[in-house]
Amino acid sequence: MEKVLNTNIKNVFRLLTENVVTPKAVIETALSRVKQFENHNAFIAVTESQAKRGAERSQRRYDANQSLSELDGLPIVVKDNFCTKEVATTCASKMLENFRPTYNATVVERLESAGAVLLGKSNMDQFAMGSGTVDSIYGPSRNIWGYQDECNFHIAGGSSGGSSIAVATGMCYGAIGSDTGGSTRNPASYCGVVGLKPTYGLVSRWGLIPLVNSMDVPGVLARTVDDCVSILNAIAGFDPKDSTSLTKPYRKIRLPDGKNMSLKGLKVGVPVEYFSELLSPEVHEVWNEVANLLEAEGAEVRQVSMPNTEHSIVCYSILNQCEVASNMARYDGVEFGYRSDDNESTEKLFASSRSFGFNEVVRNRILTGNYFLLTRNYEKYFNKALKVRRLISNDFHDVWENVQILLTPTTLTTAPLYQDFIQKTNRDQCALQDYCTQPANMADNYKVKFEDK
Asked: 41, 161, 259, 397: which has the fewest C-beta neighbours closer than 10 Å?
């Protein structure tokens, strides 16, 4: 059974259909692996009872030859900022430590409709504000690569670090993360798995506790591109409950057979601005190697320019914190979230609840965002950042006139050691870790064309 957990979704579906293995055996082996790797702190909550019940329902469907999809009976992990019915959804925070939603996020709902089994809720940076999964109230997640002990380990990346570890260790076949500036792609890179940030609006945000509404995108982590596509096909498409959802009907993606696939004539762009002075020699070498491989297979690789990339981090930092200030206002200890015992007055209750309910990172972003939104600063910071965001978006529009895809690094370095990572502030680390990923979230309005192959 251990080998079954390490294979891909289509192979497992075939084995389940042929009754070579059972959903119950798959789930029990996955739960065993969760315990085996518990030192890596991938989970905030393991939904063992729920997973076993899901496996039993799946078995009945297979017995009746009525499986719902190729995900039926397969364990999936969901980041702890997606609402899960009657299962705690904490955002790794004191503020939502006891929050149990009465409904499922659309992503969770669609996975369950496809027969997928929720294995648990994965660890993350508090309210998804981070790039290392080190700021959770449940402790940091620990990368499996180069792991020595609980004090000597590499970071898993963030903020979806728990999801990436769950996939990398084979606890599940895929996991759901969220991506605001790189929070799915970053940990996927550091943990050696595939991370996909779909186009904004392609996957519903309904039930995703927001960080930055205009940039948040549910993401997919899996061990292969094929598995990523299987999960994306299950969760993508219009959702009337999400006002930002794309209304164009979603046509399921079909990957071409590898034997018949050709890269001849594919136009690949390499943005010169992504060559940062902080780019490590190892990452630079791999970047060049991949470009050479594509060229050897017939692709046309050329340099392109995206001149506003250098302004992207500053622009992102301003807009991110402005939206954070707005989104976090709901957590006041009265309507939502942790309530302090200090109730001498409404003002003291608000202040005390927010002080204890949020960590320093969240409080700093709230304060900074409110500063940017002051009347005297609104035009100088917020409006100017919106104008720069348009320029960044235009860079992408312009580059698509000449190339079909962009080839860039995901992160500037390999996964740093935890002790080195925490020497810098959250703000500095996010600026460094998200350099190559967050421009795509800033340019959220470009189109993607889907074609059946």
From this structure: 259
Strand (E) or helix (H) holding 43:
strand 43-46
Region of residue 175 (left: phi > 0; alpha: psi -120 to 50; beta: else): beta
Joined tokens for residue 246: 């794309």
Q: What is the residue type of 40? A: H
231 Cα distance to chain centroid: 13
14 half-sphere exposure, CB direction, 13 A CA radius: 6
Among 44, 28, 36, which residue's Cα sits nearest to residue 144? 36
The question of whether 79 is a catalytic residue gets the answer yes
Which residue among 67, 159, 230, 352 is the active-site one? 159
pLDDT in tens, 233-255: 999 999 999 999 999 999 999 99
- Cβ proximity of 391 and 341 under 8 Å: no
Of the residues 79, 93, 121, 197, only one is catalytic, namely 79
Q: Are 375 and 381 in contact (CB under 8 A)?
A: no
CB 184 within 8 A of CB 128: no
Q: How many of the other CB atoms lie within 10 Å of CB of 17? A: 13
Please tell me the distance from the alpha carbon of residue 324 to that of residue 327, in angstroms, as a whole number.
Answer: 5
Look up residue 351 and give its amino acid: A
What separation in angstroms does the CA of 89 have from each of 133, 176, 251? 16, 14, 31
* Environment class of 15 (CB within 10 Å of its CB; exposed 0-12, middle 13-18, buried 19+): middle
CA distances in angstroms from 314 to 297, 309, 374, listed in the order given: 38, 10, 18
In single-letter form, the type of residue at position 327 comes to N
Segments of 162-207 assigned E as strands:
174-179, 194-196
For 135-184, the pLDDT digits (tens) are 999 999 999 999 999 999 999 999 999 999 999 999 999 999 999 999 99
DSSP state of 252: -
Instruction: State how far the Cα of 1 lies from the Cα of 69, in Å rounded to an integer.
Output: 21
DSSP string, 14-31: HHHHTTSS-HHHHHHHHH
Cα-based angle 419, 422, 425 (whole degrees, multiple of 5): 160
Enclosing H/E stretch for 129 = none
Helices and strands (H, E) in the chain, number of each type: 17, 9
Name residue 125's beta-bridge partners.
none
Residue 160 annotated to the active site = no
pTM exceeds 0.90, yes or no: yes
Q: By three-state DSSP, how is residue 364 classified?
A: helix
3-class DSSP state of 396? helix
* Cα 245 from chain centroid (whole Å): 18
DSSP-derived letter for residue 59 is H
User: Which of 131, 163, 183, 230 does the annotation list as catalytic?
Assistant: 183
